[in-house]
Specification:
CATH class: Mainly Alpha
Largest sheet: none
Order of helices and strands: HHHHHH
Strand content: under 5%
CATH architecture: Orthogonal Bundle
Number of domains: 1
CATH superfamily: Cytochrome c-like domain
Distance between the termini: 53 Å
Low-confidence stretches: none
CATH topology: Cytochrome Bc1 Complex, Chain D, domain 2
Number of helices: 6
């Protein structure tokens, strides 16, 4: 039996996996955000901010704030801390209000967005 196709396929899959891991490590925008958020908050709050973003924002703005479809990117937003917080609280256009979030949760999200 000829094992060349199987060996080729397994090798190709291993190479693909290795490239995905390397690419993810080099392009993960949250890898530098967590230490930056931790400088302003306690260490556990950085994880909380990322979890809040994943739960409330990533669906429309992308997992890393890169934008999704017609929804805008959050990277390099030119708004003040309070303007971002107000947008989260009240929404605008198609963006819903997140008025159930506490002031602390909103602060964590704003800090995260400012670091994108």
């Amino acid at each position: 039996m000829n094992n060349k196709p199987i060996v080729f396929f397994v090798s190709l899959m291993a190479l693909t996996l290795a490239l995905v891991v390397v690419f993810q490590l080099k392009t993960d925008p949250f890898r530098n955000i967590q230490p930056q958020v931790q400088q302003q908050t306690d260490p556990h709050q950085a994880d909380t901010a990322i979890a809040l973003f994943s739960k409330n924002c990533a669906r429309c703005h992308g997992s890393f704030g890169e934008g999704k479809g017609k929804n805008p990117s959050l990277r390099g937003v030119k708004m003040t801390h309070e303007e971002i917080a107000q947008r989260i609280r009240t929404g605008k256009g198609k963006m819903p209000a997140f008025d159930k979030l506490s002031d602390e949760q909103i602060h964590l999200l704003v800090t995260l967005v400012e670091k994108m």
